[in-house]
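Extended Data, record DNA mismatch repair protein MutS
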Amino acid sequence: MKAHLMYKDRDFDLKGELPSNRQALTQDLELSTLFKSMALGDDFLFEVAKKAVLSGLNNLDTILYRQNILKDCLNNPSIIRDIYDITIESIERKKKTYFGFFNRYPSSILHSSIDVLQIFVDILKKLRIIADAHADKFASEGFRLFFTMLKKELGDEYFACVQNHLEELKFRNGVLISAELGEGNKGSNYILRKPQGKTQDKKESWVQRIFAKKQPVFTIFISERDESGARALSELKDKGINLVANALSQSADHILSFFNMLRTELAFYVGCLNLYERLAQIGEPVSFPLPVDAGERRHSFKGLYDVCLALSLEQKIVGNDVNADGKDLVMITGANQGGKSTFLRSIGLAQLMMQCGMFVPAESFSSNICQNLFTHYKREEDTTMNSGKLDEELGRMSDIVDKITPNSMLLFNESFAATNEREGSEIARQIISALLERRVKVFFVTHLYEFAHGFYDKKLKNTLFLRAERQNDGRRTFKLVDGEPLQTSFGEDLYNGIFGTGS
């Protein structure tokens, strides 16, 4: 049995490798805040959220596949949580049946496997009941296939058959084993046989049993104090039931793997439910994005906000409306503390959320899929003095260039400002020009006027210039508007805000 709630044709690999730039993405986009809100203190939910968001998807069909499943989850949150709780119950109850050292023996393996399978049968019945009662409430392809699978595989005949086998394997009337004498008169070819009379629907009466023709048998009685004899008999029994015990153990492991995978895949959607409910409490909107192929240039949205900032402050955040369709470069300039870095972070977060099949923090959002997402943010000074700040920035940039591919996205936040204006502008110009030639989409927050205005003067059709809005009295609206780069970042506003304007 397969869940297939993350991919149509394969399981979700929780142990797969994360991208090499995961640390930079987590730091620059403050992803830990997002993961914590999805996990609500649950370490397993945290790891699944981290894996799903950072792994991303480059396939349009798979993104839409997950979106539709998530829509079903949002429409039926209690049912999803019930199924998730069932998977946890199965795993926890399995742990309580573990016999440790004694599971080295076939008889112990057999008995513990019977106990585990009996637990799993009861839990599978709960899943079947949910499928029967609620399948018609789900519209996504993923859940339709999931519930159809449950109804097909877990029918009444299946449960009756399994229950019958489990009862037989308890060997209440003893164990029937055949064997042969091998080399040196040692026993070989031990085979567990079906007990006589089990093929009959009804038990024989006592009269029939008395007068029935019997096969010749030899009976050996072992004294209660004969420990060696009892041990030998137990070893003979273990040899006979060994294959059955292993088969039953493998069956239990197979069902357990199904529950583990179902728990893992549902954990992503439970995390999304947790996040959705948290944002609803704050009053922030979310929407399902419209992704398009990587080769297109689409990036337009309404009311896009930094979800991590909203979660940290627990209040509504100013959103932005931008139409960057057909643009390869978005240059962002303007006043200090005007919301530029927050806006840049919202771009990265929305892209990651879209490409793992989630909703996004916006009233509406559409973007092309990116093959990879990279960030290049300014860092604090190297306290070990192993390198200068500019050397460190260029080193990180070199690492990114080694890995970046066409149709990727790169977010720059005040990069190359560790040197003088002219040198920093020239470095930035050459790097951005090369990236654009490689069909890399770039968002660049900068205070380098010479660099920004140099691109503005070129009047490139594939470039959009945004500026952090500032009112005449110096107040910031935290809105980004179309605008030519200015030569000042209005640092004087910050000075006056801290020290006052004086007399």
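Summary. Residues 57 and 355 are 5 Å apart (CA to CA).
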